[in-house]
Amino acid sequence: MKIKLLSLILLITLGCKDNSQQSLNNTKDLELLKDKQHIKELVDTFSILADKKDVKSQMQLFTDDAVVESYRNGSKSSTLKGKTEIGNAFTAFLSLFETVYHINGQQTVTINNNTAKGTSYCLVVLINKNEAGKNVKTTFGVTYQDTYVKTNNTWLIKDRKSYFNWEEVRTLE
Coiled-coil region(s) at which residues (predicted)? Predict the structure, then answer.
């Protein structure tokens, strides 16, 4: 009888540890999912603000010491450091177009405590007028390689490498 009672107590204790461990894993999994969702929203918000040409709000998505590097045809075309330099360059670039439209696609993110690395794919459509007054549509296939940091419970972009992988230019009728 004593052995059965001890076995029952042991099973109950082990069961509690398993439930406790499972609860801990569930909490970690939930936090990981929340962080990944917040990072996805960060990337999507960046694109929406670019479409609205709201660079001032866009800059709130970056750390103060952020770096943005752009690559075209496999070569680095620019390096921007800090919110002021990034904001000025974004403002100048976006002013060239009447319409800016980002379509975000697949994204992968690896989180390690309060830092994360991510890859996001984006189709960027830019429309402006040529010398003849016709609309010209430029479409880019862009891959972003990002480093994110979580500060005060908010995810921000610390480093972004923008790879403009391909480009199509077409005059609209």
Answer: none
